[in-house]
Amino acid sequence: MESYGYVAPGSIDEVLAVLNASIGAGQMTQLLAGGSDVLVQMRMPNHQPRTIVDIKKLAETNRLEVSAEGIYIGAAVSSALMNEHQDLQKAMPGLLEAADLIGSTQVQGRATICGNLCNASPAGDSIPALIAAAGICDIATANGNREMAVEDFVIGVGKNALQQGEFLLGVKFAMPKANTKDAYLRFTPRTEMDIAVVGVGVRVSVANGICTDARVSIGAVAPTALLVPEAADALIGSALDDAALAAAGEACKNLSSPISDKRGTVEYRQKVVAVLCKRAIAIAHKRALEN
Amino acid sequence: MARLHVESTINGEAQEFLCDASQSLLDVLRDELGLTGTKEGCGTGDCGACSVLVDGRLVCSCLMLGVEASGAEIETIEGIAGEEGLHPLQNAFLENAALQCGICTPGFIVASKALLEKHPNPDESTIRYWLAGNLCRCTGYDKIIRAVQDAAAKMSHPA
Fold it and tell me: What's this model's pTM, rounded to 2 decimal places?
């Protein structure tokens, strides 16, 4: 293909038909939601022209629902729309913290957390928060929808688990139970407009002073964001006291396998991931008690 | 590939244009429609010089395809001043000398307008975070912040 094409299908079936036809013709396609990564990639030298498949015209990708049955965030829902949704803010403050850290006001007007997830950067801020919140990917395929836990969706640097011909419709969550809250913290040298050196997403449930459930996820310290079951094990059954937090931080450090780059060394990232883990748990704990 | 036909509303007027699938909204505004008030700084969404409003939402026009403007209402720096003259933000930027080379200024004014529509009386911290996606390499930011505070005060208490 010598030049870019653009289609904006109006239904899931039409999107799948475009993707399938392109596979048959040996042509490249690029799914487009917010575009804050896609348009930058299009400007890269030697980026091969392809057909842009805009998925913002689908009713399904524009779903933003918070109800007793659960939470659904469609693939076309911008971070700005998420942040303005009062019920979502109340139910998942940690996820919104992560979305609010991605880019500027301008970028958040377009960018989507599903795009952040599909882009699969090791430093993507929404990914540890989505994992901590037990997000499930809702994937459209030619044989109907399939589901996959967010922690299984990112399979490498810049690589996701979508097969040819599939696309991400949205992410869904069970409505958090009572006294269950999430939090996300990242470390950057500046306060704004920077890329995570370390990110930690957590969610804790408390009842009668005891942690009854927990999920901890770390980002920017491994090729993909990781769920840290050992950190959850250290928290569940504890009073979320200093010893439990320290053990969870240590578990994060042990599972991390960071690289050294201009943003931080291996040793520094390992130290910071443990600190952020403890701080994020403390924030989520406080929120759960206020619930 | 045939060029794409797009209909949208730009600064309150119905507009039709032709564009390539790969052209950004910024390219369309500047190269197809001659609206060169919107500037290109980085082209990657980092600097905010190309800020416009799309259906009232502040966005970088370099991060949006021209064809995505189909059916949308776009407001650019050219649409900020009214028939009665400059917008209070524009006057405040002049009075506070909140610019030197001026390349970033259209983006700052469009972004500040979106800010004041959402937060009519923002504190300094709110202004600084809201404008964190607009970069200025000349003035430092203090004069810009003061200009926005000045405009906010004048807009909530017109003389």
Answer: 0.96
The minimum CA-CA distance between A40 and chain B, rounded to whole Å, is 5
Superfamily (CATH H level) for B4-79:
Beta-grasp domain (3.10.20.30)
Inspect the interface and report whether the beta carbons of B48 and A3 lie closer than 8 Å.
no
SS3 sequence of chain B: CCCEEEEEEECCEEEEEEECCCCEHHHHHHHHCCCCCCCCCCCCCCCCCCEEEECCEEEEHHHCEHHHHCCCEEECHHHCCECCECCHHHHHHHHCCCCCCCCCHHHHHHHHHHHHHHCCCCCHHHHHHHHHHCCCCCCCCHHHHHHHHHHHHHHHCCC
Start-end of CATH 3.10.20.30 domains in chain B: 4-79
Best residue of A3, A36, A37, A104 to probe chain B, by most B CBs closer than 10 Å: A104
By C-alpha distance, the chain B residue nearest A5 is: B21
Q: Which CATH class is domain B88-156?
A: mainly alpha
What is the pLDDT at residue A2? 77
Q: Which domains does chain A have, with CATH numbers?
A: 5-54 (3.30.43), 60-173 (3.30.465.10), 180-290 (3.30.390.50)
Kindly state the average pLDDT of the residues B107-133. Answer: 97
Q: Does A28 touch chain B (CB under 8 A)?
A: no
Residues 215-254, chain A: which have Cβ within 8 Å of B? none
pLDDT tens digits, one per residue of A45-87: 999 999 999 999 999 999 999 999 999 999 999 999 999 999 9
pLDDT in tens, A12-27: 999 999 999 999 999 9
Q: Which residues of B touch A2 (CB under 8 A)?
A: 1
State what percent of residues in chain A have pLDDT above 70.
99
Split at pLDDT 50, 70, 90, the class of A100 is very high
